[in-house]
Each structure stands twice: as structure tokens, then as C-alpha cells.
TrEMBL record, chains A, B:
InterPro entries membership: Class-I_Pyr_Nuc-Dis_Oxidored (IPR050151), FAD/NAD-bd_sf (IPR036188), FAD/NAD-binding_dom (IPR023753), FAD/NAD-linked_Rdtase_dimer_sf (IPR016156), Pyr_nuc-diS_OxRdtase (IPR001100), Pyr_nucl-diS_OxRdtase_dimer (IPR004099), Pyr_OxRdtase_I_AS (IPR012999)
Regions crossing the membrane: none
Keyword annotations: Disulfide bond, FAD, Flavoprotein, NAD, Oxidoreductase, Redox-active center
Name assigned to this protein: Dihydrolipoyl dehydrogenase
Family stated for the protein in its record: Belongs to the class-I pyridine nucleotide-disulfide oxidoreductase family.
Cofactor requirements of the protein: FAD
Residue ranges of domain Pyridine nucleotide-disulphide oxidoreductase dimerisation in the record: 338-443
Domain FAD/NAD(P)-binding: 3-318
One Pfam entry name: Pyr_redox_dim
Species the sequence originates in: Pseudodesulfovibrio nedwellii
Length: 454, 454
């Protein structure tokens, strides 16, 4: 049998693509070398959010205690938490497997690689299996990358996969890389009482965000007594005498129980026959056209094409590719604004353009308007009032929304819709925002006086 | 001097109306008999949310403890919390006062009443003061109402104002009236350890909501060991020997440290010369036309006109009336969907039509689609997975969204926009929902299979 569609990789991109294609009537096989759900479910977003959720009361209590309203203490049983995470993942994978069965999608477990036109070869537990496809979707995802000297040893030097598999939480932690992955995991360790050191080569934490967001986050982390070492290049980190020993290029050394290396992720595109099949890789990223086609009858979506390393971007691409493969759509893919969220307390949220983005200078009239969270009763209620919402305008339209502070992830979907819909000042009053709500900080920012971007 | 606009009442309707009118160039006076901000700020939504926020860690801890992940205890210093509430209210009122000053709005403190055409008479601390207006906005709000036998005595029988002013939290509480006000306050008392009894004449809690929401809320409250007495008529409640003694019509008696009577709120429209000025009252509600005009040159907005008892509805009406009074707009007012939110843990959220609403039978094709929160990783992370999101469709368009469960208030603004914009199935994929997020439960509900409403 030749499948209409074979999908390699069952992360948010691959799984959704298989499901949607089957829903459109295609015969589908899904190839997965490890666990259903891929990195996001098993070694990424989901376990991290389960950790953050389970420990969120600690931070709430801390904030109320600082206002002298609350006292008390909370102990989290890390082993129990890890057990709960595994139970959730197992349950979710089971539900996913049932969904595949219900839709008649064949799950083939093993490492898939391209072996000649129209054929995928899978190294299964029972030996090699070959399946034929009319169309193929490569959704192989990404994995942690390392610079020389920063390779994890799964002893005291960990990547994010290993960190999420720990049996005990360390009492001290060095995080190399101040991006969202490192910062979310550091927040969890901090809640368990770990002494945190963050090291980054850039001059700010969350270096991809608006510099004011970086500044606000750093100010909170400093209050938490984190050591934040910026503009520091790491020459190496290794396990020495049961501790992580990090050496900066300056020669300075830092030690902690564990080191988490979170300097980035790169596509999983090697040694699976991609280039032999006529696919072009650049920095390991699969090059695709405006239909996500990488070679005749072969699509690539999600982290594997390297365009946006976010689960929801992959899922949105999957939705398009399933329809395209089924012949339901032929116009080029348009993404619309893709939100990006740092969870925890505080949180950060961004969708659309940032004030500091250079391309803004191409626009006619760029302005910002903003609201501080200190004026918002919900931020006040949770005793965490630092932070703001900033709106970026261009030609009278909203082109970007950025926020940092208490639960600003709440603003994400509304902000995405506002940007997608090119809101102008006239649109602000078309919607009734509930009162009181954190969302009103977004309303305030939209209504606030605008200032030209210099 | 004759003011272009005089506003009586400085709640969310009156204050916003004064500010917006001044922004449009009108000369404005604002009359307030008590505190700036009215009920919502001083005796309603805001203090309640500060209570809920300050105690939220207790519920988070409780949920994680039930999963055997967390242990610990949290003590809230109620006196400190009340001090913090007062500090927040004072600060907010001060900021509002400064805003009035900056905009050149005259604040006149005292009870305002209409005294002859174009004149408001104010009973100030320094005696009677008269001011002249070209146009008047009556935004006098609402106050708790009582049935005979349920009058509060400010000893053990309290209305919501008195409840929010307590110096200690009672160890046991009877709440008469299972609407949002009673349920939010009962949740707070519960977190302080109070034994809760809820009594309502209706056959369900939150009787204005979708019956499935009522059922989900009741199930949670039952797990919390609340006594929920439904379809019970109260013949009276009074203070006896330092306790609240409630007598049902059946003769059964219930006692507790305090009783909170929260059976509804009614307009504040008596004894201020409204009818003498040609205004029509019906059930104390000021009757208005489609421009909120109650009599020549007199508008009425917010709770006083009794259309929707919600602060954000009042503020939206205020925005319209300010523009109408300034001659900027003459088309009839259109509200758009007005969201309604029960805060706490769990929360409930509703915007647009509910499945059970009779008028739906007028539509051609009414359907519902739904998603359970149990499948959502954020609900899982917070160990509170009961609840659902339900979408009501009519003629292929989204006309209502209802949810109950962990933090479903997060869905409010996006849900309001979806209904306001008449989303069809085609619109669902126009927006990228961030992953993971509670908002994805809304996405799942929108995408789910629809069932005809019987």
C-alpha cells in the first residue's frame, strides 16, 4: 500500500498534520522514533509548565508575604511532581494514540529516513520496514545545541532534556543561556530554593525580547538574589568532584550542584537521507518554498525548517500543509502574527513587531503607547505590580504588543487578534473589556497617549 | 458658570463619562456623595478581587496537596489584608482625583439632586450648593436590595458593603443568594477556613448562568464540604445571641457566626428629584431611549438604568454618552457582547448567548460544540481539571461562549472579540493560539464537532 501522506515526527507539527490530513480523507502513516508528542510534550513546554503550575503557589505566597499579608511555607515533593508529570505524559500519549487509531492513521515506531523516491525506511524494533508515500512531511523537530566545551555529560552538566529528567532538584544551579527555556527552568529551581546563577554572552536576559522587558525581568531576578552574569563568554563547563564547574573566558570559575546548558536548539535533519532526496539544508534548516515544499512531494514544517521554533507555529504550518497535500488549498502560506510567551511569575508576552526592531524604520509613522501594571487592580491583588504593556503603532495601526509582569500571558490571544486585524484607534471601543481584569492594562495601553519612536 | 456637562456619581460609568467628556473639550463637574470610584472600587469588585488575589495561593496549594505533590500551610493576616485594601483604595482614589484636576473637572462632594431645569443641588459639608448644566448624566449606581425579613443589621447579618468592612473573618458563614457576589465572597471566607452554607430559592447556584456551569460549580463547592441549600425560601435572618440565625419557610433554622445577604442590587434613584424632572422610573430603573436619554438633556447610564449591572457595561455606555453629549455621535448606542465573569478558583465566564436561552429557538440552526478542560495542560498543571468551554453557534456563526474551571476568565476578551466579529468555522484558523495555553481549550471547543440544540 502506498500512503497518500507519510509524516515523520509526531510533535505538534507532525501529529496535527497527520490528524488533519486523515480528517480530509487521506490515508496517513505517522513515523515516530521516540515518544508520541515529540519534544514539546515529552521534553519541553509541557513538563516545564507542569513544574511551573505545581510550584506557582510558592511565588504567590512569596509576593503576599512581602506585603506582610501572608505567612506560611510550602513544600513540594519533587519525586511526586515528577511522577505526576510522567503520568500526565503517559495519559496524553495514550489519548493521542487512540486518536490516531480512531482516524485510521498507522503509527510506525522507529527512526524514519528517506530511502529512494517515494519510500521511507524505518528502523523499528523488529528490523527495517519500508513504506511508500505519495507525499511526505518532514516534521523531525529540533534538539538542544551546544558550543564546544558546553556539551552536557548527564552528570552535573545537563541539557534541558536531562534537566527535566532529574530525580532531585539541585540546591544550586548555573544556567548557561538566558533565553525563555533557561529562564523558565531557572524559575522553577528558584522556587525549590536553589541558588541561581545565569550566564549569557549577550548584554541582557531574554535577548530576543524588547530591551525594556529584559530590564524588567532582570530587576525581578536581582530582587530574588540571582547572580546574573551578562556579556560573559563561557569557555567550558564540566563535572568536577560531583559539581558543575563553569569557566568563563576571563578565567573566572563558578561552581554549582548542576549546570543547565540552554543556549539554543537546532533542527534534527542529519543522517536521515534528506540531502540525498534533493532537499537543501542551510545551517541544518530545511529550505522550503511558500508552500513548505522542500523537494518534489516533500514538505518540511516546524522546527525542522527553522523558521519559527514554536509549537503553535508548527501546528499552524501543519494545518496548511495537510490542506495543501489534500489539494484543498494552493495559495501561499500566510502565518499571521505568532505569539511568544515566557511563563512563570513574572511572565512576558510578545506578538508582532517590537519597538527596537530595525525594520520599523521602514514604516512611515512609528509610535508606542503604554500602560504600567501598577495601576491594574488584578496585578495589585496578586501583589506583583512591576511590569507594563507596550503597543507599537505604524501608520495608525497596531503592529506589535509586548508585555511583562503578573500573568501577562493572559493578553496573548486578544493581542494576536488585534494585530491580525490591523486595529486602529477607532477599533479600541468596539470591544467591551471586562472589569476588573488584567486585560484592561492592554486596553489602557491601546488608549494611552502615543509617542514617536526616535 | 454653566457646565456643559454635570455627572452625578463617580463610579465606573460616571467617572469615565466625566473624563471622556472633558477630553472632548466639554466643561465638566462631577458630583459624588461618598468616595470617588463608587461601589465597584470601594465596596464591590475591587476589594473582592484583592481578597481573592491575596488568598489565591491557599487554593493553589490545596489543589496540589490533593494530588499529593505539595504540603504546607498558609496563614493570611486578615487585618493586614484589610489595611492593604484600604491603602489600595485610597491610592486609587487619589490618582483619580489627580486625573480630574489635570483635566479641569470640578469635583463637588455631596449628595446631588435635581432641582429645577438645568440645576443640580448638592448637599455638601458646607451647606447646599447649586450648579447649572447644559447636559446632565445620572450615574448614581446601585445598592444592595433586601426582601422583608432579610434586612442587614450590621451585627451578624451583613450586606456586601458590611461584609467587606469586617475586622475579622467569621468561622462560619451563611450566604443568602448564590449569585456571583455571594459566591466570590463565600470563596474567600472558605479560604480562611470558614464553614460555608449557601441558601438560594432557585434550583441551582449561579442561576443566571448555563445550567451546566451551575452544576460544575456546585460539584466543586460540594467537594469543599459547603452546605448548598437550594429551592429554599428564607423567611428571615437576624442576630440572636451574637450569632446569625436564619429561618427557612419550612421552619428549619440554621445558625452561623455571620450571614451575608446577597440577593441582588437595585438602582439608587430615589429622593433625588428624578421623577420631578420628568424621568420615568420602572422598578426604580431609569427608563432611557437608544441614546441613554431619560429626559430632555438628561442621560442615565450604568446600574441606574438597570440594563446591565456590570462596571464595564457602565463604562462603555459612558464612552458613548460623552461622545453624544459632545455632539460627536448621533447613531443609537450599540453595546456589542458584554462579558460576565465569576472570579476565584474555579472561575466562570460567559459572553453572548447561552445554550439554554429561550430566544435561541428563534434562530435557524442552533448548535453547541465543547471541550473539556481535563485535556488542557495548563488546567492539568494547576491540578484543577474539572470544567469545560462551550461554544453556541447559530446560523453557522459563534453567538455565545461559556466556560467554567481553572482561570477561564483568561478566555474573556478573545471570546468577546470572536462573538463581536461573528466568527464562522473559517475564522478559527485565522489566529495562532499560543501553546500551551488555557486559551487552547477555547480553540478546541471552536473546532469540536457540533451538536444540534434540542
Amino acid at each position: 500500500m502506498t500512503y497518500d501522506l507519510v509524516v515523520i515526527g509526531s510533535g505538534p507539527g507532525g501529529f496535527d498534520c497527520a490528524v488533519e490530513a486523515a480528517g480530509l480523507g487521506l490515508s496517513v502513516a505517522l513515523v515516530e522514533k521516540d515518544f508520541l508528542g515529540g519534544t514539546c510534550l515529552n521534553r519541553g513546554c509541557i513538563p516545564t509548565k507542569l513544574w511551573l503550575g505545581a510550584t506557582s503557589a510558592i511565588e504567590e505566597l512569596h509576593n503576599q508575604a512581602k506585603m506582610k499579608i501572608a505567612t506560611g511555607e510550602i513544600h513540594i515533593d519533587f519525586a511526586a511532581l515528577q511522577g505526576r508529570v510522567q503520568k500526565h505524559l503517559t495519559g496524553t500519549r495514550k489519548a493521542m494514540g487512540m486518536q490516531l487509531k480512531k482516524l485510521g492513521i498507522d503509527l510506525v515506531e522507529g527512526l524514519g529516513s528517506l530511502s529512494g523516491e517515494g519510500t521511507v525506511s524505518i528502523a523499528t524494533a523488529d528490523g527495517e520496514q519500508k513504506i511508500e508515500y505519495k507525499k511526505l512531511v518532514v516534521a523531525t523537530g529540533s534538539k538542544p545545541i551546544f558550543f564546544p566545551g558546553l556539551e552536557p555529560d548527564n552528570d552535573c552538566v545537563l541539557d534541558s532534556d536531562m534537566f527535566l529528567s532529574m530525580e532531585t532538584m539541585p540546591e544550586s544551579l548555573i544556567v548557561v543561556g538566558a533565553g525563555f527555556i533557561g529562564l523558565e527552568m531557572a524559575q522553577v529551581a528558584h522556587r525549590f530554593g536553589a541558588k541561581i546563577t545565569v550566564v549569557d554572552a549577550m548584554d541582557r536576559v531574554a535577548p530576543l525580547e524588547d530591551p525594556e522587558v529584559s530590564k524588567a525581568l532582570r530587576s525581578t531576578f536581582k530582587r530574588w538574589k540571582w547572580d546574573i552574569l551578562l556579556e560573559k563568554r563561557v569557555s567550558g563547563v564540566r563535572t568536577v568532584d560531583g559539581k558543575a564547574l563553569l569557566t568563563l573566558e576571563s578565567g573566572e570559575q563558578i561552581t554549582a550542584d548542576k549546570a543547565l546548558v540552554a543556549v539554543g536548539r537546532g533542527p534534527v535533519t542529519q543522517d536521515i537521507g534528506l540531502e540525498e532526496a534533493g532537499i537543501t539544508l542551510q545551517f541544518n534548516q530545511i529550505q522550503v518554498d511558500e508552500h513548505f515544499i522542500a523537494a518534489p512531494n516533500i514538505y518540511a514544517i516546524g522546527d525542522a525548517n527553522g523558521q519559527i521554533q514554536l509549537a503553535h507555529a508548527a501546528a499552524h504550518q501543519a494545518h496548511y500543509v495537510a490542506a495543501h497535500a489534500a489539494g484543498k488549498i494552493d495559495t501561499p502560506y500566510t502565518s499571521g502574527p505568532v505569539p511568544s510567551v515566557l511563563y512563570g511569575a513574572p511572565e512576558a508576552m510578545r506578538v508582532g513587531a517590537m519597538e527596537n526592531e530595525a525594520f520599523l524604520t521602514d514604516f512611515d509613522t512609528c509610535q508606542t503607547s503604554r500602560a504600567q501594571l501598577a495601576a491594574n487592580p488584578m496585578a495589585q491583588a496578586h501583589a506583583f505590580t512591576q511590569g507594563f504593556v507596550k503597543v507599537v503603532w505604524s501608520g495608525g495601526k497596531v503592529v506589535g504588543i509586548t508585555a511583562v509582569g503578573h500573568e501577562v500571558s493572559r493578553l496573548t490571544t486578544a493581542a494576536t487578534m488585534i494585530i491580525q486585524q490591523d486595529w486602529t484607534a477607532e477599533d479600541i471601543h468596539s470591544i467591551i473589556f471586562s472589569h476588573p481584569s488584567l486585560d484592561e492594562a492592554l486596553l489602557m495601553a491601546l488608549k494611552a497617549e502615543r509617542k514617536d519612536i526616535q
